[in-house]
Amino acid sequence: MNLPIHLQNLPKRWQWVETCVLTVLVLGLSHWMVPGDPYLAKTAFPWIWVVSVLLALRYGTWSGLLSVGIVLTSLFVEMNLGRLTDGTVPKTYVIGGVLFIAICGEFGSRWNMSLKQMEERNDYLDQRLQETSRAYHLLGMSHHQLEENLVSQPLTLRDALKRLRGMLMDETDEIPAAAAQRFLQLLTQFFQLEVAALYSTIHANGEAVPLASVGAIGPFLNDDPLVHHARTTKEFSHVMMPGSISVTNTQYLIVAPCMASNGVIVSWFVVDRMRFLSLHGDSLHMVKIFLHYFADGFQAAVLARPILEQFPNCPVGFARELPRLVRLQYELGLNSRIVTFDVESETMKEELVFHILHHTRGLDVTWDIKDDDSRRLCILLPFSDDAAVEGYLSRIQQLVRERFGMGFQDANIRVNVRGLQEHNPSIIIQELVERNYDRKSIPELSGVT
Prior knowledge:
The protein is α+β, with helices and mostly antiparallel strands and 449 residues long. It has helices at residues 13-33, 50-59, 61-80, 91-152, 157-167, 177-191, 225-233, 281-298, 300-310, 316-332, 349-358, 386-404, 425-433, 442-446; strands spanning 193-199, 210-214, 237-238, 254-259, 265-274, 337-343, 365-370, 375-381, 413-419, 440-441.
């Protein structure tokens, strides 16, 4: 038989003992003080039941019934021994007492169950309050950290690479010390480097002299395991990469070659110390992007030469930037897009071209291809996915609507978008010249016509 839930919780051992002791003590006092009527059946109120009532209210039904059982057992024993006659204790006295204590016990059990549930709820709420307070404290620390990062790293990737592009304007075979120092300062600002350096070479048997440094850089350690791994594999090496290199056996955090697309290593990047919170997978991936872009910048003339020889009308900036972005997309998954505008309007051609060219973004590179019957604008959008292209085209179309009162179709502007999946930049240029696009048009991107 399943008992009600409030009767399933039995009193503890010490509560059973307390019930027995108090009941026996009260019976002993009543026999000593009123020997003629020890159960107080003849008084105006049956005081003998008070102790049972209190125990029932305090510990529940089971304690009250135990106390009643002790009293009734004592009563029946004395009646069997002849100490009390049948009329000394009326039946109504016994029945009324048992019912009264049973009612009090029921109330006590339910009340104890309510108290226990309330305590459990309060404990749960207290636990949740502590977790919320801890989460709020962590949120405050995170917000403070974000504020510090915003102050120390106010640049976005596009802003940083725009500054880096400006550093690489001079055509030199070797990296000037001033350019190396500016590049290292840019990395320091973006990644919170503390001790780092750029080396032209790190030969195994020679002493490496830094081109530029940040912080108190010590003598270069040729026998460092991370240096040996990077020099042997000519790959981006760091302490978080999987492998057999022990973090405790290396002095450096990052040792990486600045290798251009043609395999030429223009310098070596070494990080001794940086902020702990900045050393994670995303930041390491970003460092690779900067190093690739930096290395290709100093080999830009070499990389652009095949394009310019095959397509002499291609702008130098376009021919230099395209190989860099193709490599970043192929090796690091940083997508870029080329948007082409074929302007075929006879009356507004020049004005349309002027406004589109005038509203290019900071990193964008343009190529104005002039044909007999149309103008084709090729806009290279670095580090732009489909969402960024949609935003750019929506902005240009809004500009055309505000200035000329018509959309792309009404203005006889055909828009196409292509990615940089082709690994050979010359093939991409050829497809642009021959209008052999991959046919991802503006309606497929955003539905704007």
